[in-house]
Amino acid sequence: MDLMTLSSIAAFAPLAGSILAGLVGPKLPRAFSHWVTILSVAISFAASVGAFMQVWDGAELNSAVYQWISGNGFTMQVGFLIDRLTVTMMCVVTFVSLMVHVYTIGYMADDPGYRRFFAYISLFTFSMMMLVMANNFLQLFFGWEAVGLVSYLLIGFWYTRPTAIYANLKAFLANRVGDFGFLIGIAIIFTVFGTLEYAPVFQAAPKLAQAGAIVRLFGEHGPTWSLLTITCICLFVGAMGKSAQFPLHVWLPDSMEGPTPISALIHAATMVTAGIFMVARMSPLFELSETARSVVLVIGAITMFFMALVALVQYDIKRVVAYSTLSQLGYMTAALGASAYPIAIFHLMTHAFFKAVLFLGAGSVIIALHHEQDMRKMGGLAKYMPITYATVLIGTLANAGIPPFAGFFSKDSIVEALAASHVWGHGFAYVLALGGVFVSALYSFRLLFYAFHGAERFESHGGHEPHGEEEPHHEAMHGKPHESPWVVTVPLVLLAIPSIFIGAMTIRPMLYGGWFEGAIAATPTMEEMAKEFDGWWGMTLHSFASLPLWLALAGVAITYYLYILKPGSAAVVKEKSGFLATILENKYYLDDFNDWFFAGGMRKLGSGLWLWGDKTLIDGIMVNGTARLIGWFASVARRMQTGFIYHYAFTMIFGVFALLSFFWVYLRKL
Fold first, then answer.
1. Residue 469 has pLDDT above 90, yes or no
2. Taking the CB of residue 55, how many other CB atoms lie within 10 A of it?
């Protein structure tokens, strides 16, 4: 089977599954919806693996699937660019999505929206596949908007919850801000290069940079900016929205209002990775603007450290993992800014596996505790849920960057890349990355110890909150917690395996073996790091003499002391932290600021426009004012209608006299 056929199957099989589950599923037994979507995503995964093997053997594809619009020498088309970057993303997206589909059978078993959910997540997979396989900006934007639309539907899946509706609107609006910048970047590219195809743009960009194309902002005497710098920054604004970078990160923690399977899919392999992938794909453009890379680097550094701190004060088990995702996305973004694009994609891949484990493991705990998400009402679950505990432990070790787990190799590589980089701001980013390593270990093991160790606190919560009509019930799950069914634990195990081994197995070929050659721009940062690399085992041994590992181990030790040896001391530390803890609990007051400034400001603007524009100008003057003017004129004219004949006779005589006087004066002039 040729590469085009495999690519088409990989892209469109999930769409077919979604259509069947959504349109035919409601008329058939509910099992049809999960079987048809799981089969379609499994076919997509198999086709992705087939495409991976062909690309491994040297094949590549950059071709149109069909032409959409053509005219005046310009064409818009759907096309595939299948290279080593693409097939890496295809395999990650479809494998994680397949595991989430299987897991969903257990998690959503009693949900009234069972069929709808499977239709949505299969459509989500299709949208992400179209994004990563695109060979032009038009299709990229289609996939970009499609994942945003489906995420809106999935975050608000339980639409009877006011908090879910608030969360999906928040995600929608935050992403509209980013997408506006992204669309401007694409418009600049089309205006300057006259095409939306990747290849011609990448070929012409160096000539544009050499020509020194600039844009003068704010008039003739304003500052000048490189045209490529503005373009790259606009594109990155889009990535800030999709990949939840400061300050457009605020939507991601609230996306936890959706069911846990979609939280895993959004955070691990689809929507939030879209921005990271896009910047890596655009590396030939970003390498021509150090200013743009500095912006990317600093934004990533701020996100990776300060969002990790917020995770320390969260008690909702899913929100801890959500803030962990924000921090890890910050690491990927910082790597992009440091010109370490392969390392960013490497961390994206390892993170997809261990973050899916953490989210799905959290979901397994939530099922066992009848949808309880507060870690203060957990504890001692390890003996009741050994498989879930083992997999979450693996995910925790990987997330904390402990060798030889997958997260260690990718996160440590990012820290080294920040040290080796020469982009402005790399020192600032390096310090925050080290701090992030320490904090990551703190919040990762805080979750593990809180939920699975210590005293059992789940019996003291006195039941659970009532469910809405659109929420799962799991009525049979009462009494002591127990291990989740196999449809939940098997995906956990299959995702935990690469969370252990994939980092060591793939670090050499992906980062230093030329795997991304031709797909991602070669950079001095990667060349410098390649000289120091001596294999995964050498890297592991070297870590014992480097700062990041000892910071991570210190974080583990401190967490063990606070939550296992001296369980009450964590509360004491929090109390003594004073306003610092308050700031973190309020998430730096960014939500409050957004509600006050943007939401409140728009409400006041709307009220002002209503009061002065609608009520005063339109209703008061144009509509009602016209009516009042006519009424006034009529009231004046009405006074002439007295009903007395002598008044009318007098008026007629006066009128005749006036006319005669006028004509007499006029005729005398002649």
1. no
2. 22
CA-CA distance, 115 to 23, in Å (whole number)? 10
Q: What pLDDT is recorded for position 403?
A: 92
DSSP labels for 477-522?
A: --SS--PPPHHHHHHHHHHHHHHHHHHHHHHIIIIIS-TTBTTB--
d(CA 498, CA 496): 6
What size, in residues, is the chain? 670
Q: Name the residue type at position 592.
A: D
> Which amino acid makes up residue 244?
A
What kind and span of H or E run contains 547? helix 547-560
pLDDT in tens, 386-436: 999 999 999 999 999 999 999 999 999 999 999 999 999 999 999 999 999
pLDDT single digits (tens) 128-161 = 999 999 999 999 999 999 999 999 999 999 888 8
213 burial type by CB count under 10 A (0-12 exposed, 13-18 middle, 19+ buried): middle
CB neighbour list of residue 406: distance below 8 Å, 6 or more residues apart: 350, 353, 354, 398, 498, 499, 500, 501, 502, 503, 504
Which tokens hold the place of 305?
């450290």
Written as six digits, the tokens of 152 are: 């809106």
SS3 79: strand
Residues 502, 406: Cα–Cα separation, whole Å: 6
Q: Which residue has the tokens 């310090």?
A: 431
Distance of CA 319 to CAs 173, 314, 464, 514, 647, Å? 20, 7, 19, 37, 87
> Model confidence over 40-94: pLDDT tens digits?
999 999 999 999 999 999 899 998 888 887 777 677 888 999 999 999 999 999 9
Q: What DSSP designation does 388 have?
A: H
Task: Give me the helix-helix angle, 406-420 and 524-532, nearest 10°.
Answer: 120
- For residues 151 and 255, the answer to whether their CB atoms sit within 8 Å is yes
Cα separation, 362 vs 368, whole angstroms = 10
Contact 303, 236 (CB under 8 A): no
For the cut 90, the answer to whether the pLDDT of residue 379 exceeds it is: no
At position 604, the amino acid (one-letter code) is K
